Sequence to fold (323 residues):
Amino acid sequence: MKRLVVILLLPLLQPIALAQGPQPVKLGFYNVENFYDTIPSLFRDDGDFTPQGRNRWNTERYLRKTANLARVLDDMSLDVVALAEVENEAVVRDLVTTLHTDYNYIYRTTGDFRGLDVALLYKGDKLYPGRVRQIELGSTREALYVRGELHGKRIDLIICHLPSKLNNKAYQRLAMTNIHNFADSLQRCDGEAHIVVMGDMNCDPRERPMRDIFGLNTALDDLFSPLLPEAQKGGGSYVYNSRRMMFDNIFLSRALFDLPGPIVCRSAGVFVRDYMLAAALSGMKTGYPLRTFVGTDYVGGFSDHLPVYVILEVIGRQRSLSK
Fold:
């Protein structure tokens, strides 16, 4: 009789595929503006951000900066968020341990002479990284490439911080071209690639370099930005001379939406809260992103950039359960 019971139970132990409801996937990018520690570097130009430097960058100010950034990231509560302008792995680690949100991180040193690099924070139960490498852009600041699985879907993340407008314009165009060419080559050579580019482009999508290289005003290019409509309405992540510009951007591969179990772009925008904006502070206009310094005057803010985000939805994903 016991043997018969075992035989009858075996079919019930087989996995049963159950369709889940829509699964939100939240991605973002944040230029955290000069996130330095207080320790002088032997190899990088960080002299202003030391206790004896021009900015009198001490432990108290560093801890406040860390807490401010953690507040923003906790409020965003993204599955994956890329950062720009982090000095080293130590500041990334300090930020992660300050956060209430549980993140893992990926960091690589670049050749940037100021010692400002990019990093990736991610929730370990959402993103499973596989391959990690750097991409040469023709400038001193390499991009970070991470291939993995996000919510069970193949994802190819490219994180970049392109040269400023203060540099020779050719450097910016070259870096932008190299990012686009890498994404294009990846898509052509690997049919399973599904690309997300996140970064500080130092260029608004309405400006000519972005239009020429990324073809954002056409339906022909494989990459598109869900932030373009907001930029066209005058929104932006950065403010200069009272003009808002979408310097920080996210680009999605059209192939990302051709997967079995479709992915839908639900929303995209600039993340902002009142506490992230300047009020009646000397040297700052009301409504500007509340930064850490105005010149050499310490105001104890967050960053001169606002973070950007996109919320995707994975529909029809299946999971296996055993009864």
